[in-house]
Design brief:
The chain has 5 helices and no strands. The chain is mainly α and about 170 residues long. The protein has one domain: Ferritin, core subunit, four-helix bundle (Ferritin). The structure holds fe (ii) ion (FE2) (2 copies). The site of one fe (ii) ion has 5 residues, from helix 3.
Length: about 170
């Protein structure tokens, strides 16, 4: 039996989750280099979450007996000197991931793949949470101000958000 069109779409989404982890590692490293330990903790913890998303997708492909093809990872670009821009870059990335998941949902619907449609609902909700989290961080940075004297307070604020997210089981 030929694989449905959703098989390729799901394989691409699995690779997207791995690319996301790669970006979060680079963003976390950017913060470590600037002694922003609260921000790095949140971003590196989030990289772990992206890996669990990747494994969820991988397990689904295994269950469906669809092909699993890992793709080359592009260099993650974290080309900024501003912490606000760093989180904006993350938010923009998450919006692109959300678009990809929404396209996959449409594809599953169009090809009557109810199982994949149901499976993807968890990711739809997860993306909603992630967008909310990173938009929330940007809003707080805007309130505090992104100047060199604000970095200590921004990092403290993000550390508190990271701790409360960990206590409630993640973003
Ligand atoms: Fe994810
Ligand atoms: Fe994400």
């Amino acid at each position: 039996m030929p694989h449905p069109s959703t098989a390729t779409v799901m394989n691409d989404l699995m690779n997207g989750e791995l690319r996301a982890a790669h970006l979060y590692w680079q963003a976390g490293a950017w913060c470590v280099e600037r002694n922003l330990n609260g921000c790095s903790e949140l971003l590196l913890t989030h990289a772990d979450e992206e890996l669990t998303h990747m494994k969820k997708m991988l397990n689904y492909l295994v269950d469906c007996e669809w092909p699993i093809r890992f793709q080359a990872l592009p260099e993650p670009k974290v080309d900024t000197e501003s912490v606000q821009e760093l989180f904006q870059l993350i938010l923009d990335h998450e919006k692109k991931v959300t678009d990809g998941i929404n396209r996959a949902v449409k594809e599953a619907q169009a090809s009557d793949d109810h199982s994949t449609f149901e499976f993807l609902q968890w990711f739809v909700m997860e993306q909603r949470e992630e967008i909310k989290t990173f938009q929330g961080i940007i809003d707080r940075i805007k309130l505090i101000g992104d100047g060199p004297h604000s970095l200590y307070y921004i990092d403290k604020e993000v550390a508190e958000m990271s701790a409360s997210m960990a206590a409630s089981g993640g973003a």
